[in-house]
Write a structure and sequence with these properties.
alpha+beta, Nuclear Transport Factor 2, Chain: A, 4 helices, 38% helix
Length: 167
């Protein structure tokens, strides 16, 4: 009788565990929700990037980059690591130049985001508008690799380029 009782208890525990399933595997709804949350956070990088440029806020700009990130802005012009990237913005970027009062605008319809687990890509254009004249003074495009690092989405690589305004 004792064996039957113990066997019955183990059987019920096994049945309960089987009914619970593997709680470590996210459901399709949870995966979809995570994908949307990741796309939102990557989209925030674009918004914060343009906000930092308009405000000339180098600390906000640098908060978007992974410690070992790279940034290529032209042939043979690659900055590696946070110090070199900061140096580019402070010393070489026309947007951060004290004499320029530019607003960094972006056509939202040209934004592209991909997500695959803890990695993704981000593409956008920057249209720089002179705050005094209202004229577009510069346009650029950029392709970013991004990654979730310690729970935050950060830029790991940027390749900048040129773009033409479409009329």
């Amino acid at each position: 009788m004792r064996k039957l009782l113990i066997g019955g208890v183990f059987g019920m525990v096994a049945l309960l565990l089987a009914a619970c399933g593997d709680s470590n595997v996210p459901s399709a709804a949870e995966q979809d929700l995570q994908q949307k949350a990741d796309r939102y956070e990557i989209d925030q990088i674009e918004k914060d990037f343009h906000g930092a440029m308009t405000a000339k806020d180098i600390d906000q700009m640098m908060s978007l980059w992974a410690p070992n990130a790279t940034m290529t802005v032209g042939p043979g012009e690659t900055a590696a690591g946070l110090d070199e990237i900061r140096g580019f913005f402070v010393e070489d970027s026309a947007v951060f130049a004290p004499e320029n009062e530019w607003i960094s605008d972006h056509p939202a319809y040209k934004l592209e985001i991909t997500v695959a687990g803890d990695r993704g890509t981000l593409h956008f254009e920057c249209h720089f508008v002179d705050a005094q004249t209202g004229m577009v003074v510069s346009t650029t495009a950029a392709d970013f690799d991004v990654a979730r690092i310690d729970g935050n989405w950060l830029i790991t690589n940027m390749v900048g380029g040129t773009t033409d305004l479409e009329v």
